[in-house]
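Exercise 3.2. Students should predict the tertiary structure of the chain below and write it as structure tokens, then compare their answer with the key that follows.

Predict this chain's 3D structure.
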Amino acid sequence: MSKIVSQTFKGSKVKLDGTLFEGCVFEGCTLVYAGGELPQFTGCSFSNIQFVLDGAAARSAAYIRMTYKAGAANVVRDWLPELFLSKTQH
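Answer key:
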């Protein structure tokens, strides 16, 4: 895993896979996860960011949406309950 320390990202596209971000600042960025090794964030701050899924991660999200819409909503809710928590429960 690569490591990025104390870097500020402004208005850029940042690939997340396989990276440990330590003490970084993300402002107005698009954070892209493609389904590889999970990124890690320690002591980072986020402002006005967007998360984007690409590659295998996007296909996995599409599969979950398709399964939900196909009538297996209860199965998806049981499998990924965190997605269905209200903002006050997080």
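Discussion points: The chain has a mean pLDDT of 92. The first helix runs from residue 55 to 79.
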